[in-house]
What does this fold into?
Amino acid sequence: MSRIRLLAAPLAIAATASLAAAVAPLAMKWEGKLAGNGASKITGVISLTPSPDGKTSMATVEFEGDTPSVTRPWHVHIGSCDKGGGVFGGGIAYKPVVVDDKGHGISSAALTIAAPDTGSYYVNIHESAANMRTIVACGDLKMKH
Ligand SMILES: [Cu+2]
It folds into this structure.
């Protein structure tokens, strides 16, 4: 019994190390620019960044040129600004942006899923919780090499 344990321990460590080496390079950083739709003058930056262990990710949004003091729901979505898709990660992680009195807004979302290494993703800024259908600004994310 003790002999098996002695053999199993180094194997487990080796398996964990090789798994980490295999997973880490797959978590990629994504970045993009936000632009207003229609009359919106919003401009900003967006990102999706892997955690150090590659297992989770952090989405960020920062913009200016918005209407002072509004509250904007936002998400990373699967797809592109042209072709919409579902929310990436748990929607509950995305705290709405509360725009300040100068039209500047910033928020981040700690996601429980890894940053992807493939696919298409974008960030959209919704008009309000009561009008999610109207997208006031959007930006496609691009993988950073
Ligand atoms: Cu959204």
